[in-house]
Amino acid sequence: QVQLVESGGGLVQAGGSLRLSCAASGRTFSSHTMGWFRQAPGKEREFVAAISWSGGGTSYADSVKGRFTISRDNAKNTVYLQMNRLKPEDTAVYHCAGRRGTMVARNRYDYDSWGQGTQVTVSS
Known about the structure:
- This protein is an all-beta fold and 124 residues long.
- It has no helices and 11 strands.
- The protein has strands at 3-7, 10-13, 18-25, 32-39, 46-51, 58-60, 68-73, 78-83, 92-100, 113-114, 118-123.
């Protein structure tokens, strides 16, 4: 497992942008597939995006495809989520997650490391 700490959340107007960061501790970060999930009040935690250990493979939820971009810098042990053209329905707590292995995963139960989350609020 790796320890994960998210940052970069905040309040933004609809149409704006934010970049989330997730800093990981541990020497095995580069062997982890990483993902972003979000949870709005009263809703289940849902998949947003994932990236393979090398960065060569990515996957996105349909609701964010074309607006969000996931990337990683293994030298800095950090994964990012660039969020553009934000909508009020993107409002949620965003969690970073990690799993050992090379396959990109969309199911939250495939991940065994989680951060505490960072709040993103989009006003209309």
